[in-house]
Amino acid sequence: MKFSPSAWAKLIYLRDRGTTEVGGFGITDPEQPRFVKDIVLVSQSCTDVTVAFDDTAVADYFDDQIDAGRHPEQFARIWIHTHPGRSAEPSGVDHETFARVFGNCDWAVMFILARNGATYAELKCTGNPHSEPLLVGIDFRDEFTGSNQASWEDEYARCVQEVPVIPNWDWDFWPDDAPYLSDQWPWLPI
């Protein structure tokens, strides 16, 4: 799996823009179905550990892509999302979502980029019960334009709604002098 330099730059921008996960779809050319040339966001609610796409926004995105002359293999087979932590390993929810949403596709890719640059890419094909890990790279062979952070910021502001995670702790259970995990998460008891 390869990314264009501008798609990679956009993905890093989106990953670092907020404190939550962010998700989108990879746009490819018909001749290179696993070469991501752009990343498109749809309206979504995001937490530190989840991304929930708005169903209507996904339907509108599919309509827009079909109207632009693209086939699903070019816009709906590569699910990209970020992890705000250091691990790019998919969670159980990631695996379940990938199987549920992309399980009927002839092929699909789940790609994750973590905050520290770690990546995870998995190819799933119909008829193969096992996924295939993919190597990830950036293809610098062709000319490419610079970043477009103003456009990326506009897309982020339109599509990403950060939702805080409020732990379901029994606060009466924890004594006032209980030690906490860190200053970064003072609400999380050890």
What report would you give on this structure?
It comes from Gimesia panareensis. This is JAB domain-containing protein. With 190 residues, the protein is an alpha/beta fold. It has one domain (2-162): 3-Layer(aba) Sandwich (Cytidine Deaminase, domain 2), CATH 3.40.140.10. Helices cover 27% and strands 27% of the residues. It contains five helices and eleven strands; from the N terminus they run E-H-E-E-E-E-H-H-E-H-E-E-E-E-H-E. The chain has helices at residues 5-17, 55-67, 72-75, 92-102, 149-159; strands at residues 2-3, 23-29, 32-40, 44-46, 51-53, 78-83, 107-114, 119-125, 132-133, 137-138, 160-162. The strands form two sheets. An eight-stranded mixed sheet has the order 9-8-7-6-2-3-1-10. Strands 5-4-11 form a three-stranded mixed sheet. The longest helix has 13 residues, at 5-17. The radius of gyration is 18 Å and the shape is globular. Residues 178-190 have low confidence and may be disordered.
Percentage of residues in DSSP E strands: 25-35%
Taking pLDDT < 50 over at least 5 consecutive residues as the criterion, the unreliable ranges are 178-190
Mean pLDDT: 88
**Main sheet specs:** 8 strands, mixed
Q: Share of helix among residues? A: 25-40%
Number of helices: 5
- CATH architecture type: 3-Layer(aba) Sandwich
Number of strands: 11
Strand order of the largest sheet: 9-8-7-6-2-3-1-10
CATH top level class name: Alpha Beta
CATH 4th-level superfamily: Cytidine Deaminase, domain 2
Count of distinct structural domains:
1
